[in-house]
């Protein structure tokens, strides 16, 4: 499968949802495999406190605790094991889901329940059609940016100015796609040693 090099991807620090949208767009136009083989994964929980290891902004073996994080997953039928595309990770790009699970996600078993991860899985083509953000979540009360925004215009749909919160919240009956616990998701994608 043809994949972009990390250094050739559109990337803005702290805008993982837009980075993944741009990556989906690249695969839609450039990939040799159908976009239907890709899933966008929003990683969060009801407390919006999710630790991830092996992140660019991490220090040593300590995790970064995000309010949410977004990655792209490829799992082709009958192909090699699933691959994760995470532009914020120091792991390979792409990285096997098995390695990403072991090194970046690790297990919920040793974590306080408020840090247990949940995953909202959305078909990549649906994400491209429906995602919209006015970037207001990155504005401070005085109107300044907490982190500089991407140079390109905000990603918008005719239906709404921003629906990012629908993707981040982890209630099964709201938003697009399906919500799973970390373990349920790993079992669903058939990893033999799903983290607890």
TrEMBL record:
Hydrolase is among the record's keywords: yes
Family note: Belongs to the NTAQ1 family.
Keyword Hydrolase: yes
Swiss-Prot/TrEMBL keywords: Hydrolase
First-tier enzyme category under EC: hydrolase
Transmembrane segments: none
Pfam families: Nt_Gln_amidase
Assembly and oligomerization: Monomer.
Protein's name according to its UniProt entry: Protein N-terminal glutamine amidohydrolase
UniProt cross-references to Gene3D superfamilies, sorted A to Z: Protein N-terminal glutamine amidohydrolase, alpha beta roll (3.10.620.10)
E.C. code: 3.5.1.122
CC terms in the record's Gene Ontology section: cytosol; nucleus
GO molecular function, one term: protein-N-terminal glutamine amidohydrolase activity
The organism of origin for this protein: Neogobius melanostomus
PANTHER family linked to this entry: PROTEIN N-TERMINAL GLUTAMINE AMIDOHYDROLASE
Reactions the enzyme catalyzes: N-terminal L-glutaminyl-[protein] + H2O = N-terminal L-glutamyl-[protein] + NH4(+)
Limits of the Protein N-terminal glutamine amidohydrolase alpha beta roll domain: 11-186
Function: Mediates the side-chain deamidation of N-terminal glutamine residues to glutamate, an important step in N-end rule pathway of protein degradation. Conversion of the resulting N-terminal glutamine to glutamate renders the protein susceptible to arginylation, polyubiquitination and degradation as specified by the N-end rule. Does not act on substrates with internal or C-terminal glutamine and does not act on non-glutamine residues in any position. Does not deaminate acetylated N-terminal glutamine.
